[in-house]
Amino acid sequence: MLELSIFDLSLLFTCALVAGLVDSIIGGGGMIQVPALFAFLPSFPPATLLSVNKFASSVGTIGSAIQYARANRSPWRLVIISSTVAFLASIGGAYLVTQVPTQWLRGALPFLLIALLIFNIKSNAGLVHAPKHQPKKQKAVASAGAGIIGFYDGFLGPGAGAFYKLLYTRIMGFDFLRAAAPAKFLNISSNLGALCVFLYMGFIDWKLGILMAIANLIGGQIGTKIAITHGNTFIRKGFFILVSILIVKTFYDAFLK
Questions:
Q1: How confident is the model over 15-21, as a mean pLDDT?
Q2: CB-based contacts of 146, cutoff 8 Å, min separation 6
Q3: CA 167, CA 181: separation in Å to the nearest integer?
């Protein structure tokens, strides 16, 4: 790790802590953590910064997932199968991103998010727990969704945690609190899949990664307690705010940057 001042390290730690807090409640912590890494370490290879983000996010998300799993019973067979698919798909996406340009996907992403936002505002998805499918179909639907989102997470990544929540709330019929643990475990799996590719290619800074991971974990624990205390309505409002911010950011990245 390059020599950084205590002030710079403190700011990076704070950004990672806030990212963990936000991610544990509604997802999207990478929108805070990734820009902070690129701003403070512009001379680092981008793949190294992305791998640090994936490592830190994985640690923080594991802590959040455990908290949510303790608060609400999770369908573990469903989670294990779909998480495996997300892990493998993310490996494919992370490898592909080293081979092809991503601009076409960046351009389509904000419009996809707008459609998803409208699609969800018109429903009560996430407020009521009413699973839509029988167990066998649940596994098929969850695995298909996990494969698509996992590939996207390895290939590009912004908002993957939000997409996993959409999978469980809008398509599977879970409420936000019961969707939280499965969505987090899927996010962990796709983070780890992409991270494996980065590690294999030698892109990692362990000191920086551990520092960011500790902060992310602390923030995640705080955010999870807030979410469990305030419930589905609070998470739903935060979720819509996050998706709206994602629309603005992805549009800027694709067309104005």
A1: 92
A2: 82, 83, 85, 86, 89, 164, 167, 186, 189, 190
A3: 13
pLDDT confidence tier of residue 20, bands split at 50, 70 and 90: very high
| Cα gap 140→156, rounded to integer Å | 24
* Angle at CA of residue 239, ends 218 and 54, nearest 5°: 45
pLDDT of residue 141: 94
Looking at residue 45, its amino acid is: P
| Residue whose entry in the numeric block shows the structure tokens 């700011």 | 11
Angstrom distance (rounded) from CA 43 to CA 39: 10
Query: Which two structure tokens, joined as six digits, stand for 87?
Result: 């892990």
State how far the Cα of 86 lies from the Cα of 188, in Å rounded to an integer.
9
Helix ranges restricted to H, the chain: 6-26, 30-40, 46-71, 76-97, 103-121, 135-155, 160-166, 176-200, 206-251
User: What global pTM score does this model have?
Assistant: 0.83
**Under 8 Å between Cβ of 155 and 98:** no
* DSSP class per residue in 193-214: HHHHHHHHTT---HHHHHHHHH
